[in-house]
DNA sequence: CTGATTTGACCGAA
DNA sequence: TTCGGTCAAATCAG
């Protein structure tokens, strides 16, 4: 059940992320329709997660097959898979001393960590990452970049991610997250549900949707439905240097109206992120 | 100065 | 050996 919860959270996070960008780049009448759809999906994910957590199904099906899970319509980003990475626990890290002057090395191979992959048109996930490597990958025209959490040493956070452009669509990125954040994201206080009444009614009204989840939207062909308004603006910002556009920078250029509309989407993203972090080491 | 990025060397696994 | 992930010195950015 943990994987289902995490998968559901990832799904909701993805929709929230899409919603965020949709609100940042409003695109006419279609935009509001897409936004409503996304909000519905976010609602559904929250409600579904809650129902999983509150239902006393002791199903600790630890060995569910890694499932491929593609998300509805808007193709801005999709959760592709979740899989446990099992690797040796042979803690054999021979530390060859820096005898020779260029003697480097000494790094641990990754142990068992949760990994999941999304496809997104942006690499900005509102987390603080620091690039530590880049490699050309065999049979790939684009290199793969390696990032770790900036608080790796401050707080021992083990989260890393790998980013690589898609061959078939260089405007999009394949982002593999490895491990959950164990650090506190000090950038923003996660007081997400201060207005609980709003959320209560929020979920209350979505119960109908629970019984009839919009499965019909979850098709199999991610690259096909590319007419999403979200991807419209493959603007220059994620072209060359995708890492420097923080949301703070974006927001500073927005009017108050847009800002007030935009923030909730980001808070939803944070909520999902926080939940993912929680369940990351709880399960 | 500090902190992030670049980039080739190093390392383990296959 | 090759390949992909990591390290870290050099470099860049503020």
Which overall shape is indicated by the principal axes computed on the Cα atoms? globular
Number of domains: 1
> Which bin fits the share of residues in helices?
25-40%
Major sheet details: 6 strands, antiparallel
Uncertain segments of ≥5 residues (pLDDT<50)?
Answer: 56-106, 186-260
Task: Give average pLDDT, whole number.
Answer: 57
Beta fraction: 5-15%
GO molecular function: DNA-binding transcription factor activity; transcription cis-regulatory region binding
Keywords: DNA-binding, Nucleus, Transcription, Transcription regulation
Subcellular location: Nucleus
InterPro entries: WRKY_dom (IPR003657), WRKY_dom_sf (IPR036576), WRKY_plant (IPR044810)
Textual characterization of the structure:
The protein is of the alpha+beta class and 283 residues long. The protein has one domain. It is built from seven helices and six strands, in the order ααββββαββαααα. The chain has helices at residues 2-24, 28-54, 152-155, 196-205, 207-211, 247-252, 256-282, and strands at 77-85, 113-120, 129-135, 144-149, 160-165, 173-178. The protein has a six-stranded antiparallel beta sheet with strand order 1-2-6-5-4-3, with helices on one face. α1 (2-24) runs antiparallel to α2. The longest helix has 27 residues, at 28-54. The protein is globular, with a radius of gyration of 20 Å. It starts with a helix and ends with a helix. 27% of the residues are buried. Residues 56-106 and 186-260 have low confidence and may be disordered. It binds a DNA duplex (14 and 14 nucleotides) through β3 and β4.
């Amino acid at each position: 059940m943990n994987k289902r919860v995490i998968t559901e959270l990832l799904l909701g996070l993805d929709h929230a992320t899409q919603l965020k960008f949709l609100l940042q780049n409003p695109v006419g009448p279609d935009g509001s329709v897409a936004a409503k759809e996304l909000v519905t999906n976010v609602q559904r994910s929250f409600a579904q997660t809650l129902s999983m957590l509150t239902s006393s199904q002791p199903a600790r099906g630890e060995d569910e097959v890694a499932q491929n899970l593609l998300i509805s319509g808007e193709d801005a980003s999709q959760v592709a898979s979740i899989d446990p990475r099992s690797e040796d626990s042979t803690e054999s890290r021979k530390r060859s001393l820096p005898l020779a002057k260029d003697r480097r090395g000494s790094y641990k191979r990754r142990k068992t960590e949760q990994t999941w992959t999304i496809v997104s048109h942006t690499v900005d996930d509102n987390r603080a990452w620091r690039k530590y490597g880049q490699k050309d990958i065999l049979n790939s025209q684009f290199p793969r970049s390696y990032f770790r959490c900036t608080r790796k040493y401050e707080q021992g956070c083990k989260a890393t991610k790998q980013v690589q452009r898609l061959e078939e669509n260089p405007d999009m990125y394949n982002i593999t997250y490895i491990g959950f954040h164990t650090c506190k994201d000090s950038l923003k206080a996660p007081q997400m549900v201060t207005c609980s009444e709003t959320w209560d009614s929020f979920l209350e009204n979505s119960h109908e949707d629970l019984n009839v989840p919009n499965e019909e939207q979850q098709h199999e062909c991610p690259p096909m439905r590319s007419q999403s308004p979200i991807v419209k603006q493959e603007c220059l910002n994620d072209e060359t240097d995708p890492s420097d556009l923080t949301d703070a920078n974006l927001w500073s250029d927005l009017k108050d109206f847009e800002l007030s509309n935009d923030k909730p989407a980001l808070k939803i993203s944070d909520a999902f992120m926080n939940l993912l972090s929680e369940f990351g080491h709880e399960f």
